[in-house]
Amino acid sequence: MKIQLRNRILSMSVAALAFGAVSPAYAYSVYRSVTANPATGVVLWNKDNFGVSGNPPTLSFFYFETDDAARAGLPNAQCFVKVDLPDADAPEPGAEANVGNADISVNAQPGDLPKPFPWVITFDNDPAGHWSIARSQITDATTNAAASRVAASGFQSLATTVGSYVGVIAGTLATCAAQ
Predict the structure, then answer these.
(1) 129-143, pLDDT tens digit by residue?
(2) For residue 58, with 0-12 CB atoms within 10 Å meaning exposed, 13-18 middle and 19 or more buried, which class applies?
(3) Residue 45 CA from chain centroid, whole number
């Protein structure tokens, strides 16, 4: 009887571990390198960490297969904002996904003309693995500085909201936090 019980528990444990090991392998995540307060590990939710730039102006993220691959790909990153996209399949250039949802407030300054969630992120693969959110998705303002401030506020709201599919993970800092 003890052996049967032990075998059942072992079988259930193996199944649970297998399910847990399989699920993350199917996640399709994009990452953004950010800095944090070195003493606390709390991400600095400011326009410098969420710089909207380029022509056309966008906020950039990069696909990595795993958290460790992101750390290896961007070895100097103190922390990362990680966004789990809803589709686990490898996309074709031009693919889009929503980030955030209308139930989560962006919490940006009204003068920066924030747009509500969801924001659309687009895969252009230029450079390889590149995803971006257009300034026009983030704000109605015409400056990159305003868009960067809105992006910082918005991603702080997402990273501190359970179920948003956005979080913060450690890079070179042992502990990173959203707070």
Answers:
(1) 999 999 999 999 999
(2) buried
(3) 14
